[in-house]
Structures are given as structure tokens and as C-alpha cells.
Write a structure and sequence with these properties.
alpha+beta, 11 strands, Heat Shock Protein 90
């Protein structure tokens, strides 16, 4: 009924009063403003039943990026109003700005909470690793002198050394040196704990590498379990400035790994010259894909289902850390099944 009354009114009034499209423009904009909608473009055209322009700005019909709504106001003639207006995206965003900003703030707070939680968990994990690091260092560093001292003591108990004073004295000296080293290692392990590692002080002294290395090799030859051959090749009387305790630990780690990662027998050659120290063996070798990671903390080279090789992935990390602190470097060349060569290069002494 309302539509019919409107159509009738248009049929009666339109022939008398001509269409004033400017008034429609004003009414359209006024209606939008009352609703709080302010658009850059808001205008009305009138078209006939064939969609030909009757009144209004023709440029609006070819303008890009405008939305439009068509309302037929004369059913008999088919004339319609076409309202053109800018897309209301900006208006909608302005109305929703408070909701969008508050939602973004909540998401940001949640992200910050997750970051704080991740940081806290990571810190707790670091503390756990610090404890494991200390225990692993203690186990790894103490087992070698204990094994050597045990072997010397076992020889004294189970073999007829009473009739050979020189051999008995030699075994007792070996055991005594290893017990002394155990005492040094206790302090060394404490100093290598994560809390004190950054402030650890080295005590450099002049070391004659030939006798020094031969003493380490002699102790390592005492280990049981497999046939061990260790040869020291020195290029002259080589001397170096280094911390005796830590350099002992470094060489013991490298020789210990060579013995551990080998077959029933192993041949190790320790080369000494003015440029550095090399430790080569004929063991099982290291896969090429593992070589870049062997000095990383806790990294262990995978060896399939072998259960006879145990460790914590801390020995070579310790070696690299100490050599870095000395200003020296270390690299490795290895091939699976053909053994490995670890080369220590002196810094200012090279």
C-alpha cells in the first residue's frame, strides 16, 4: 500500500513539479550524517527504464571504485534513483577501531606472556643443563686417572713385582702421579662449572712437550681392555707456554677418545713440533656429516646400536673451550673406517 501511494504521488506531482536532483543529493547526505556516516562521495542520479540518465552528474557513472544502490520510484515509467557513494570501509573501520585496537592489545599481551613463559622455561632448562654439565665433566675427567691408578695397583697386587724393585717403583710412581692428578682435577672440575667458567684463570708455564707428552702416553698405555700402542714423535726439543693441568686434560681427552672409538687394538701417534700437536689414530673414524658438530656441547657422533661406547658429548667441547681460552685452535680430519687426526695449532707460539 505504501509503495502504491508513493507511485501515485509521483505520477500526480512529477508532471507539475520537475525533478530536483540537487534536493535528493542534499537529503541523501543529510540522512547519512544523521547516522554518523561521512563519506567522501555521496550523490544521487535519476535514470529511466532504459537506464539512461535523466538528471544528475553523469561522471559518477564512469567513476571507478564507487558503490551504488538503485531504488525504483515510479513503477509505471520505470524511473529510478541511483545513489553512488564511496565504499564504507573507512567508516566501518572507524566504528570498529576500538574493538580492533583492544583485540590487538589482547593478542600482544598474550604473545608477551608466551614469550615470558618461553624465556622462563628456557632458563630452567639452562639451569638443568648446568647441573648435567657439571656431573658430565666430573665423570669424564675423573675416569681416566682412576682407571690408570687402578691398573697400576692391580699390577702390584696380581703380578710378582716384589722381586723387581724398579717395576714396583715405576707402578707406584704412576699411581702417585694419577692420584695427584685427581686432586688437581677436583679443582679443575669446579672451575669448569658454568658459574665460574667465564672467570676461570689459566696458569701458564713453560712445558717441554716431549717428556710431558711421553708421561701422558705412558699412563694411557697402562689401561686395560684392549691392545694400546702410543707413539710420541717430537721434532726436536719443543717448548710451549701453557697451563699444565688443562693441557694434560686436553691430551688425555684426545687420547682417551682415540682409544674408546677403536677396535680391539689401536695405534696412536702424537706428533709434536713448533707449530702444534697432532693426535692421529687408526680407529673407526668420524662420518663427514658429523665433523662440523663434534666440538658442540653434548653432541655425540651416532654409532648405530653400539653399546660399548658411552659418553656425554662433553670431552671435545671442553678441549675446544680450553684451547680457545689459550688462544689456540683445533681442527680434525677423519674418514669412516680409516681413523682420525686432531691437530692443535699454537697461537702466538706457532
Amino acid at each position: 500500500m505504501v509503495n502504491e501511494i508513493g507511485y501515485g504521488a509521483h505520477q500526480t506531482i512529477d508532471p507539475v513539479y520537475k525533478l530536483r536532483i540537487a534536493d535528493m543529493d542534499s537529503l541523501f547526505r543529510l540522512s547519512l550524517r544523521r547516522k554518523g556516516i561521512n563519506l567522501e562521495v555521496a550523490s544521487v542520479l535519476s535514470v529511466d527504464s532504459d537506464n539512461k540518465l535523466v538528471a544528475g552528474d553523469a561522471r559518477l557513472r564512469s567513476a571507478a571504485g564507487l558503490d551504488s544502490i538503485t531504488v525504483c520510484y515510479n513503477l509505471l515509467s520505470g524511473e529510478s534513483y541511483v545513489a553512488y557513494f564511496s565504499p564504507p570501509d573507512k567508516y566501518i573501520f572507524d566504528r570498529m577501531k576500538g574493538i580492533v585496537l583492544s583485540t590487538a592489545a589482547i593478542i600482544l599481551l598474550i604473545a608477551m606472556a608466551f614469550m615470558y613463559l618461553f624465556h622462563t622455561v628456557s632458563r630452567l632448562r639452562t639451569i638443568e643443563e648446568m647441573k648435567d654439565d657439571f656431573v658430565s665433566n666430573m665423570t669424564h675427567e675423573l675416569k681416566t686417572p682412576i682407571a690408570i691408578a687402578y691398573s697400576a695397583n692391580d699390577a702390584l697386587l696380581n703380578y710378582d713385582t716384589g722381586n723387581d724393585p724398579s717395576k714396583r717403583e715405576n707402578y707406584l710412581k704412576i699411581a702417585n702421579r694419577q692420584l695427584k692428578r685427581l686432586g688437581e682435577l677436583v679443582e679443575n672440575i669446579l672451575s669448569m662449572s658454568m658459574e665460574r667458567r667465564k672467570t676461570m684463570k689459566l696458569k701458564p708455564e713453560t712445558i717441554r712437550l716431549g717428556p710431558f707428552t711421553e708421561e701422558i702416553a705412558a699412563a694411557q698405555r697402562m689401561r686395560g681392555g684392549k691392545q694400546i700402542e702410543i707413539e710420541v714423535e717430537a721434532d726436536g726439543d719443543v717448548c710451549v707456554e701453557a697451563d699444565r693441568t688443562h693441557l694434560t686434560n686436553v691430551l688425555n681427552n684426545l687420547i682417551d677418545n682415540a682409544i674408546k672409538y677403536s677396535g680391539e687394538s689401536v695405534r696412536i701417534v702424537v706428533g709434536l713440533d713448533s707449530k702444534g700437536i697432532s693426535v692421529s689414530d687408526n680407529g673407526i673414524g668420524i662420518p663427514q656429516k658429523s665433523l662440523p658438530y663434534i666440538f658442540n656441547k653434548f653432541y655425540r657422533v651416532p654409532h648405530g646400536n653400539r653399546q660399548d661406547v658411552r659418553g656425554y658429548g662433553i670431552g671435545l667441547y671442553y678441549v675446544k673451550s680450553i684451547l680457545d681460552k689459550m688462544g689456540w685452535s683445533i681442527d680434525v680430519k677423519s674418514k669412516t673406517g680409516e681413523g682420525s687426526v686432531f691437530t692443535i695449532k699454537f697461537g702466538k707460539n706457532g
